[in-house]
Amino acid sequence: MAAPSIVLIVDDNPIGRETLEDLLYGQGYTLAFAADGPEALQQAAALTPDVILLDVMMPGMDGFEVCRRLRADPHLAEVPVVMVTALDDSESRLRGLEAGADDFISKPFKRAELRARVKTITRLNRYRSLLEERAALQHAHEELIASYDATIEGWVHALDLRDKETEGHSLRVTEMTIRMARAAGTTEPELTAIRRGALLHDIGKLGIPDAILLKPGPLTEEEWAIMHQHPRYAYDMLAPIAYLQPALAIPYCHHEKWDGTGYPCGLAGSAIPLAARLFAVVDVWDALRSDRPYRRGWPEHEVLAYLRAQAGTHFDPWAVELFFQVLEAMPGK
């Protein structure tokens, strides 16, 4: 339940304070009081009230000066100020507006009008404050997400530093996979998960010894068995991280094959997550085109012929066709 709105009543005359207190008592407000300008500024700073009912004619610091000082304070500048005055001339109202007043209430008070104005102003101020809080939370959330993504990119950069032969691979395959996912009709937040998963697809290789990962020649059967563990390593690393759980499909399943002969789970056909099926085509396309310690990159036409030949065995046939559609639509193709 929301806390009661705070109404700060400022009047050097005790009778004036008591009159406003009588009118607002029992209306669901927390009432606070100040007998002069300096006390009003102190109370406002301490309470951040939802509205200030500010008498104009006070000795020393009058209501106009109090209002100006409130508006000059960044923490209090948005607090609604209603000037309470027996002055009914346009010049006084203009001075109040120039000082930053939001509204005026004339003495003697009309009970219903006073209550209605205070109620309206406090409601609007609470609504504005709620919007500001929501905006602040949204901004904080966006900053948190940005820091998460920066961390992911840092991990990817660490992988690139470890394996110079694949430097840039993760960014390239991520861009192409996102193009394919959009062409397939994927929307947010699925695209965000796909982007993160594509960037992190090889994160499990952090668990593979350098002697195997960077070996300049073909791997032995035993070494391949170790290499085939990297999707499981990726799952073990990422699954405990809540915001990365939607992105697990690619790191864990991108080596599964359409015919069920892939790893780590031997999934087949549509049992393989769609994101992983799309990514598998892109991953092999980029890998075959790139130089590796144990071979030179293939010519483009050979890579494309290989992808078509593997449709229905290694790759989802629909994903292969989508890949070619996207590739042909890219600038320069």
TrEMBL record:
Keywords: Phosphoprotein. Residues 6-122 form the Response regulatory domain. InterPro entries: CheY-like_superfamily, Cyclic_di-GMP/3'3'-cGAMP_PDE, HD/PDEase_dom, HD_GYP_dom, Sig_transdc_resp-reg_receiver. It comes from the Bacteria. The modification 4-aspartylphosphate is found at D55. CDD domains: HDc (cd00077), REC_D1_PleD-like (cd17538). Residues 144-333 form the HD-GYP domain. This is Response regulator. It comes from Candidatus Chloroploca mongolica.
